[in-house]
Amino acid sequence: RLLKAWNAKVGYPIASFQLEQEIVNINYYGCNTLEDYFFRATESLSTWRSGNASATQKIESLKSNISYVTYYLDINDLNGALAWLKHILPF
After folding, report:
1. DSSP 8-state symbol, 76
2. What pLDDT does 19 receive?
3. Which of 7, 50, 57, 76 is most buried (most C-beta within 10 Å)?
4. Whole-angstrom Cα distance, residue 64 to residue 67?
5. What would the 3-class secondary structure string for 18-81 be?
6. What contacts 78, CB < 8 A, 6 or more positions away?
7. Model pTM greater than 0.90?
8. Backbone angles phi, psi at 11, to 5 degrees
9. CA distances to 18, 29, 30, 69, 81 from 22, in Å
10. Do 88 and 72 form a contact (C-beta atoms < 8 A)?
11. Maximum separation of any 2 CA atoms in the chain, in Å
12. Distance (Å, rounded) from C-alpha 63 to C-alpha 46?
């Protein structure tokens, strides 16, 4: 649901059904928390989109923004991580 919310926020660069298919085909071995699943799904999304440079750019931007979230979580700055999540997701 989080990735579908992101997808809607940025104008549906990935067809909804295609996004669902990509998400269910990801290997989630070792994921235990919602955070783990969300980060694994975002890092596993394919950035290559046939003939759709805008979609590729939006997915690359998502991955870049997620790296900021994980950085702030690593340094225990929850406010920084939340600020980046608010940038990504429609809160």
Report:
1. T
2. 92
3. 7
4. 5
5. HHHHHHHCCCCCCCCCHHHHHHHHHHHCCCCCCCCHHHHHHHHHHHHHHHHHHHHHHCCCHHHH
6. 72
7. no
8. 90, 25
9. 6, 16, 18, 22, 25
10. no
11. 40
12. 10
Tracing tokens 């926020």 back to the chain, one arrives at 9
And the tokens for 43? 């890092």
Are 54 and 34 a contacting pair, CB within 8 Å? no
Distance between CA 68 and CA 73 in Å, rounded?
9
Residue 9: C-alpha distances to residues 2, 3, 68 (Å): 11, 10, 19
Structure tokens at 60: 């690359």
